[in-house]
């Protein structure tokens, strides 16, 4: 007992030292974590702000460029050189034209109006009002060098706005008249600085943000007034500075550190973290103490008994006591021998973790039932999202979950069958009480499923365990162990992939045959290229005059085994197997080889080729394309690669680099099926796409709503400098409406079905007949 007391005292002293150290560590971790969260949050918001401002700047410059090229505005400035000559009708027409562009900018809060200035007439049109005696050269933002760069929009330095008196930065574009060959006016688009700063400050809802813009005279403007650089508070503040506009004006972002740390969102996270860490620490300390006591107790008792035994040996007959101990050792040896034999058997036929029969025992039990020709069902069960639990809670917790789940399976199938662990998170149940599918399904739905709707406790966690299950019946579905496993596994995997919550699924021979055919198609695909089974058809793309300007190449497969296979039935599998890479290079080489006869027409032709995301992930893709084109003296400008929205949404750097490299070679990049996915204009700008192909779904319904959508997409694409191709044009009425709308090119059965190369050569010599 003396040894036990000493150990208990040491445990108590150790615990009293560990607790304060643990609390100090928690405080340090919380403080460090709060600072890191604050720094990361402000840096992320700063990057987002700079990206947003740059995006707005690009849009505003594009609009200014478009206004400066507007024929109606140029016409007005050319014909009304003085304010006296302006009549009400033409002035109203000018205001309406300006309003069209102002509507585009309406969502941008720091833009108020678009201003038009006549250089010869020295008058200003702003907010629907005409101002006289407006000399651009006397404006504070004007610089003589601006006149040398009249073709591009210019962002000026900070100045006070002429009409409102507010600080502003202007985006200007000089208007050049092709009729008079002179500068006839200026487009001025004012960015009100206080509104811009207010928009940026309010966007940071986690704390306080104050933005400052350098006005150019050593002063910084904020929502609250003008400050010198020394007057801007820097203590307990995250400061970021950048020149995010073309005019190289500094913008400072000052994030108040204390407002972020003590915001209700961060405080809530911090408090929750403290409670969780303290709770975990207390539980761990308590568990550790109890566990050590539990482990050490037998040891201390044994030591105490050993001391008493040694004292007895010294006082009593040594030989007699020794003989007694040897008898005990012999008994222990025999017990260990029997236990070892059982352990070997257990290791061979039983799972070490769960104690369930393993795969070898499953084979023995199933083979015995097959020999007896007894009907039974084999249920293959696989846990859903088990990897997620392993990653979230750790492998130890995952093991505990498997143990708890196996116990629950044994309980629910106690008198119905034998539960075995097949591998990992897979279990196979020999349901030897099988009579018919209905009885098994009823038992599964009304007994098994309700059992597992309740959370399972494991490793101090609770979770509702979901799983997929497939069943194969002996002898209806298979007559051997391997076939039963393969077919039950197949139907389980099908359930897991398509509808994991569906419940127990029985083996389906038709589904199995379909799957085998898919696998066979994949094998045939790998040999199709060497067997010369692929061919290319071509569909013309016409312009407004219905003459052929572009051609789309379409892959066709005439399989020796399956005959004609539609692209929708094999392209996906070609991508899955990687065969699309070699097929894609073959298509490009065939087109380059056969293009010369097509190009010998009175108009330049461009041929479009669909490119898979898998191809663009090849780091050698661009270099390979370059070699193929140079081999056949193919002009890069005659090539157009069509990509889908999924390519740009993944934001893969290899894909991004390949697209830009192809673009730099002079190859046109088109976005196919626009409108069927996320349809974001942001990636149109980011990836510098040249052509937008609007999907046929927008013209199948001839209602004004869908036609307006097409018109708006067409207008925005043109603003971004892109050409537009309308797919699926099948009638003259559709063509007339879309042509009047200003679309660039058209494709569809109204003009031509996909044709062979020889038919295409004939078509390119004349306009499409109707």
TrEMBL record:
<dbReference type="Pfam" id="PF00990">
    <property type="entry name" value="GGDEF"/>
</dbReference>
<dbReference type="InterPro" id="IPR052155">
    <property type="entry name" value="Biofilm_reg_signaling"/>
</dbReference>
<dbReference type="InterPro" id="IPR029151">
    <property type="entry name" value="Sensor-like_sf"/>
</dbReference>
<feature type="domain" description="GGDEF">
    <location>
        <begin position="374"/>
        <end position="509"/>
    </location>
</feature>
<keyword id="KW-0812">Transmembrane</keyword>
<feature type="transmembrane region" description="Helical">
    <location>
        <begin position="12"/>
        <end position="32"/>
    </location>
</feature>
<feature type="domain" description="EAL">
    <location>
        <begin position="518"/>
        <end position="768"/>
    </location>
</feature>
<keyword id="KW-0472">Membrane</keyword>
<protein>
    <submittedName>
        <fullName>EAL domain-containing protein</fullName>
    </submittedName>
</protein>
<keyword id="KW-1133">Transmembrane helix</keyword>
<dbReference type="InterPro" id="IPR000160">
    <property type="entry name" value="GGDEF_dom"/>
</dbReference>
<feature type="transmembrane region" description="Helical">
    <location>
        <begin position="274"/>
        <end position="297"/>
    </location>
</feature>
<dbReference type="InterPro" id="IPR043128">
    <property type="entry name" value="Rev_trsase/Diguanyl_cyclase"/>
</dbReference>
<dbReference type="Pfam" id="PF00563">
    <property type="entry name" value="EAL"/>
</dbReference>
<dbReference type="InterPro" id="IPR035919">
    <property type="entry name" value="EAL_sf"/>
</dbReference>
<dbReference type="InterPro" id="IPR001633">
    <property type="entry name" value="EAL_dom"/>
</dbReference>
<dbReference type="InterPro" id="IPR029787">
    <property type="entry name" value="Nucleotide_cyclase"/>
</dbReference>
């Amino acid at each position: 007992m003396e040894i036990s007391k000493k150990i208990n005292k040491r445990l108590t002293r150790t615990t009293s030292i560990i607790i304060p150290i643990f609390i100090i560590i928690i405080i340090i971790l919380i403080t460090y974590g709060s600072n890191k969260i604050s720094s990361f949050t402000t840096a992320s918001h700063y990057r987002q702000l700079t990206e947003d401002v740059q995006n707005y700047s690009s849009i505003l410059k594009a609009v200014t460029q478009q206004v400066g090229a507007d024929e109606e505005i140029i016409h007005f400035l050319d014909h009304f050189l003085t304010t006296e000559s302006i009549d009400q009708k033409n002035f109203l027409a000018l205001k309406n034209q300006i309003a069209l562009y102002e509507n585009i900018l309406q969502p941008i809060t720091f833009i108020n109006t678009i201003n038009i200035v006549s250089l010869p007439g020295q008058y200003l049109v702003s907010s629907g009002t005409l101002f006289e005696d407006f000399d651009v050269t006397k404006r504070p933002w004007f610089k003589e060098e601006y006149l040398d760069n009249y073709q591009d929009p210019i962002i000026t330095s900070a100045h006070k706005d002429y009409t409102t008196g507010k600080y502003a930065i202007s985006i200007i574009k000089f208007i050049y008249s092709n009729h008079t060959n002179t500068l006839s006016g200026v487009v001025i688009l004012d960015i009100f600085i206080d509104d811009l700063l207010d928009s940026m400050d309010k966007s940071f809802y986690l704390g306080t943000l104050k933005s400052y813009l350098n006005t150019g005279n050593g002063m910084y403007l904020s929502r609250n007034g003008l400050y010198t650089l020394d007057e801007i508070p820097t203590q307990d503040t995250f400061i970021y500075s950048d020149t995010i506009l073309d005019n190289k004006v500094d913008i400072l972002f000052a994030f108040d550190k204390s407002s972020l740390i003590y915001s209700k969102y961060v405080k809530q996270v911090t408090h929750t973290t403290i409670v969780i860490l303290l709770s975990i620490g207390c539980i761990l300390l308590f568990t550790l103490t109890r566990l050590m006591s539990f482990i050490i107790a037998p040891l201390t008792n044994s030591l105490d008994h050993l001391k008493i035994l040694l004292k007895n040996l010294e006082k009593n007959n040594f030989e007699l006591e020794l003989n007694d101990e040897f008898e005990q050792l012999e008994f222990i040896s025999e017990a260990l021998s029997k236990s070892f034999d059982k352990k070997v058997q257990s290791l061979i036929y039983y799972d070490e973790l769960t104690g369930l029969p393993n795969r070898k025992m499953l084979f023995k039990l199933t083979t015995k039932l097959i020999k007896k020709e007894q009907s039974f069902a084999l249920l293959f069960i696989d846990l859903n999202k088990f990897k997620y639990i392993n990653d979230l809670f750790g492998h130890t917790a995952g093991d505990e979950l498997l143990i708890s789940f196996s116990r629950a399976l044994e309980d629910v199938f106690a008198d119905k069958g034998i539960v075995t662990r097949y591998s990992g998170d897979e279990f196979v149940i020999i349901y030897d009480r099988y009579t018919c599918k209905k009885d098994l399904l009823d038992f599964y739905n009304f007994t098994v499923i309700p059992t597992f709707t309740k959370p399972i406790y494991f490793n101090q966690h609770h979770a509702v365990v979901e799983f997929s299950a497939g069943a194969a019946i002996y002898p209806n579905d298979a007559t051997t162990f391997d076939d039963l496993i393969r077919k039950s596994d197949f139907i389980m995997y099908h359930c897991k992939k398509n509808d994991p919550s569906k419940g127990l699924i029985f083996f389906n021979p038709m589904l199995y045959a379909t799957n085998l055919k898919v696998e066979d198609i994949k094998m045939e695909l790998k040999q199709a290229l060497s067997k010369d089974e692929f061919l290319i058809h071509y569909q013309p793309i016409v312009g407004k005059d219905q003459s052929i300007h572009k051609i789309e190449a379409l892959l066709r497969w005439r399989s020796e085994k399956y005959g004609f296979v539609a692209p929708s039935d094999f392209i996906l599998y070609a991508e899955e197997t990687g065969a699309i890479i070699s097929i894609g290079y073959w298509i490009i080489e065939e087109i380059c080889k056969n293009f010369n006869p097509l190009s010998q027409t009175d108009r330049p032709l461009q041929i479009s080729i669909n490119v898979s995301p898998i191809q663009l992930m090849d780091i050698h893709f661009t270099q390979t394309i370059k070699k193929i084109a140079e081999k056949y003296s193919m002009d890069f400008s005659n090539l157009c690669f069509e990509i889908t929205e999924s390519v740009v949404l993944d934001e893969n750097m290899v894909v991004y680099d390949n697209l830009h490299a192809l673009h730099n070679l002079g190859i046109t990049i088109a976005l196919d099926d626009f409108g069927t996915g996320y349809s974001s204009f942001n990636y149109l700008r980011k990836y510098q796409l040249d052509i937008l192909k609007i999907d046929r779904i927008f013209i199948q319904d001839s209602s004004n709503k869908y036609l307006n959508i097409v018109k708006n997409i067409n207008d925005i694409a043109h603003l971004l400098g892109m050409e537009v191709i309308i797919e699926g044009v099948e009638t003259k009425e559709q063509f007339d409406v879309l042509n009047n709308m200003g679309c660039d090119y058209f494709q569809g059965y109204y003009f031509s079905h996909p044709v062979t190369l020889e038919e295409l050569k004939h078509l390119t010599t004349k306009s499409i007949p109707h």
